[in-house]
Specification:
single chain; eight-stranded mixed β-sheet; seven-stranded mixed β-sheet
C-alpha cells in the first residue's frame, strides 16, 4: 500500500492527512477516519444487487496496514462504522479487534449505526452518542453548523472533480479543510462521492493511490 502524506496544523495541533483517507494525530497516537460502512455490500446482495463479497475485508486490511504503519495505539471512527444491520461482513470486525487487542477503539455514532451498540459492547468498542473531544477538537459525525468550535467530521463523503484533457473529468475522494473544520472522506471505497462546489472557506486535498494533491480554493 502506497501512503502519501500532507502535514497540516489545525487548532495548534499537528495532523497528518494521507491518501488512504485517514488522519493521524501524532500527539495522541490516534488514527482518525469516518464512514467504513461495514456490511454495505452484503446488505446490497441481500436485496438482489450483485456486489463483490470482499469489499469489507479489503477495507479492514487497509485499516490494519495503516495501524501498523503509524504504530497507532488508538483509533477513532467519526460515524457510520456499519451500514445497516449486523451481518457476516460486519462480524469481520470482531476478528479485526482480536488481532489488535491493545488498540483503544472509539466510535462516534453516525446515522447508519442504528444497531451498533450491542456489537460495540460485545467487542469492546467505546462509543459516544454525540461527540468525542480531544485536544479541544470536537469529533462529530455530521459537519457542524456552529463555527465557534473546531470540528472534525465525516458523513458527506466529499469528492472533487478534476478536469483532464481533452474533455474528461476524474472524480476523487478528498478532505475539505477550513480554519475551523475538517471533513473526512469516506474510508470505504464502496461509497459515492459528493463533488458539490466547496464553500470558499475550504481548501481541498484530493486523494489518489499515488498522491495527495492540495487544491487551494480560489
Amino acid at each position: 500500500m502506497n501512503i502519501q502524506e500532507q502535514h497540516i496544523t489545525f487548532n495548534k495541533q499537528k495532523l497528518i492527512l494521507n491518501n488512504q483517507r485517514t488522519i493521524f494525530c501524532p500527539k495522541q497516537n490516534t488514527l482518525i477516519l469516518s464512514d467504513l460502512h461495514l456490511g454495505k455490500a452484503a446488505h446490497f446482495r441481500k436485496n438482489g444487487i450483485p456486489i463483490p463479497s470482499d469489499i469489507s475485508s479489503l477495507d479492514l486490511q487497509r485499516l490494519a496496514s495503516l495501524i501498523d504503519y503509524y504504530r497507532a495505539e488508538n483509533i477513532l471512527v467519526v460515524g457510520d462504522l456499519i451500514h445497516a444491520g449486523i451481518n457476516q461482513e460486519v462480524l469481520l470486525l470482531e476478528e479485526f479487534k482480536q488481532k489488535h487487542g491493545n488498540l483503544n477503539f472509539h466510535l462516534v455514532i453516525g446515522n447508519h449505526d442504528r444497531q451498533v451498540e450491542k456489537l460495540a459492547k460485545q467487542i469492546n468498542i467505546i462509543y459516544h452518542h454525540d461527540k468525542f473531544e480531544m485536544e479541544q477538537i470536537h469529533f462529530v459525525h455530521e459537519p457542524a453548523i456552529d463555527r465557534s468550535v473546531f470540528t472534525i467530521s465525516g458523513h458527506i463523503h466529499p469528492g472533487v472533480s478534476i478536469k483532464l484533457p481533452p474533455n474528461k473529468h476524474l472524480r476523487l475522494p478528498c478532505f475539505w479543510v477550513s480554519a475551523q473544520q475538517i471533513i473526512l472522506p469516506a474510508f470505504s471505497k464502496f461509497t459515492g462521492l459528493d463533488s458539490r462546489k466547496m464553500s470558499e472557506e475550504y481548501d481541498c486535498y484530493a486523494l489518489h493511490e499515488e498522491i495527495i494533491l492540495p487544491l487551494k480554493n480560489s
